[in-house]
Amino acid sequence: MAKGKKMDMLIVGSKTKEALKGSGKKTFNVSGDTLDAINKYVYWLVEQAQLRCEANGRKTIRPHDVLCCD
């Protein structure tokens, strides 16, 4: 992604925040910029999946392109 370009939010903020907070005995606070950090990570995952797919000569991104680390 080009530097300086605003990234669209790829995650559902309320659901992600709810998951991060946890439940039961132990709950956590979530800082305001945490969702931005997770969103940047998701963009990175997407880019890595695209690169792996391309490196394997495919046009279809498969689950192992996202989950597998080389």
Report strand %.
under 5%
Class computed from helices, strands and strand pairing: mainly alpha
By CATH reckoning, the class of the domain at 33-70 would read Mainly Alpha
Overall shape: elongated
Q: Could you explain the architecture of this structure?
A:
- This protein has helices at 13-21, 34-55, 63-67.
- The protein has a domain at 33-70: Orthogonal Bundle (Histone, subunit A), CATH 1.10.20.10.
- With 70 residues, the protein is mainly α.
- The protein contains 3 helices and no strands.
- The longest helix is centred in the middle third of the chain and has 22 residues, at 34-55.
Key terms for this structure?
70 residues; mainly alpha; Histone, subunit A; elongated
Task: Describe the structure concisely for a colleague.
This protein has 70 residues and is mainly alpha-helical. Helix content is 51%, strand content 0%.
Strands, helices and their partners?
Blueprint: H1 13-21, H2 34-55, H3 63-67
